[in-house]
Specification:
With 231 residues, the protein is mainly alpha-helical. The chain has 2 domains: 15-160, Four Helix Bundle (Hemerythrin (Met), subunit A) (Up-down Bundle); 170-208, no CATH class. The chain contains 8 helices and 3 strands. The chain has helices at 15-29, 40-68, 77-87, 89-117, 123-142, 145-159, 181-188, 191-200; strands spanning 169-173, 204-211, 224-230. Strands 1-2-3 form a 3-stranded mixed beta sheet. Helix 1 runs antiparallel to helix 5 and helix 2 (40-68) runs parallel beside helix 5 (123-142). It is elongated and about 85 Å long.
């Protein structure tokens, strides 16, 4: 696969927003009324359901992040090298690894407290176990603050990268701002010249020409032209 749609990567929320989203959804999607007169089995199930729902929501959102972000071992070497230069592959892998570890820790917390809830002997004790379980999950996510912020910066930058086919010959026109890069492209590769090349050439090579905004640390302009000429 040569083309990658980085614009479809899901937004990575800050850790605080991440926690608020999960807790709010847990409150909305699970029952909210419980009475101490209920049988203990029903009370246990009530709080166990909340713990498992929160765990599954955390798990799904973390899995979405791990699935959306490209694996350096699976993308084209061009993109792997580009991401190493732009983001440092070690830092990138470490951030994804920490997210994966957080996912497993959340799963383990839910498993441990679900087991404890089976032995809860009162509404108060079951409620305290539920609060402790959600609290530990939130603490795990708070520790991912830097990783989540870093991955969101990577996502924003990836979404601005121009679409490049590594299997197509590419000419990159770069230089300082306002020195005539775009004018050069428009003059040299005019529409008439393009038509002349296509009509005169018996064998045609496709070359992608990429313009840039200027060498001041800014990202490349998402602007490309296809140029054809005879071999």
């Amino acid at each position: 696969m040569s083309h990658y749609n980085f614009k479809k990567i899901t937004v990575v929320p800050p850790s605080k927003d991440f926690i608020d989203i999960v807790l709010s959804k847990t409150q909305r999607k699970t029952p909210t009324v419980i009475h101490k007169q209920y049988r203990i089995g029903r009370i246990r199930h009530f709080y166990m359901r909340k713990v498992k729902f929160a765990q599954q929501t955390f798990h799904d959102k973390l899995t979405q992040i791990l699935t959306d972000f490209p694996k350096l071992e699976e993308v084209h070497p061009f993109y792997a090298d580009l991401m190493n230069v732009l983001y440092d592959k070690d830092h990138y892998k470490l951030a994804l690894g920490q997210i994966n570890t957080a996912r497993h820790l959340v799963d383990n917390v839910a498993k441990d407290y679900s087991r404890l809830l089976k032995y809860g002997d009162s509404l108060y004790r079951c409620k305290q176990l539920k609060k402790a379980a959600l609290g530990r999950m939130c603490t795990i996510m708070k520790r991912q603050k830097q990783s989540l912020e870093y991955l969101e910066q990577v996502r924003q930058h990836l979404s601005r990268l121009p679409s490049i086919d590594p299997n197509t010959r590419t000419l990159l026109i770069c230089g300082f701002p306002n020195v005539g890069k775009s004018s050069f492209i428009n003059k040299v590769f005019s529409h008439s010249l393009f038509l002349y090349m296509c009509t005169q050439a018996s064998t045609i090579t496709v070359v992608r020409l990429s313009d840039t905004r200027g060498k001041k640390g800014r990202t490349s302009k998402s602007y490309t032209k296809l140029v054809r000429w005879d071999k």
